């Protein structure tokens, strides 16, 4: 079994942010490795976690293509293991809340529709918890240059 956490602007996925802003936050997180332009996983020794950054439509539907990243992110999905008493849920939820706070977004449990972190005005990014250095075994790929609309504004209708 897996736990899913959805970080989004609102229930209509009405706003997006430049991918470079999201990847900058995730690249600075201890215990994460970038596995593709829009995907992350846990580093060795950390609870199992997968993260997907995606552009999406108003229903939250998205697709991920290896080797490609959207110019703007409308949803961040965190997937962690529910095995062994869910040791990865609390750290994944804490990370989801930090991402949501950075962009003024919310965190939803899509299985229960429970709002775990309400949307609020964006704040300074809370510091990641202090952790011992992690040996990175996979080199992160550089993110594509951000383009499009200014930070924090919604992408034009029909634009991923």
From TrEMBL:
Region (Disordered): 120-160
UniProt superkingdom: Bacteria
UniProt name for this protein: Uncharacterized protein
Organism of origin: Kitasatospora nipponensis
Lineage: Bacteria, Bacillati, Actinomycetota, Actinomycetes, Kitasatosporales
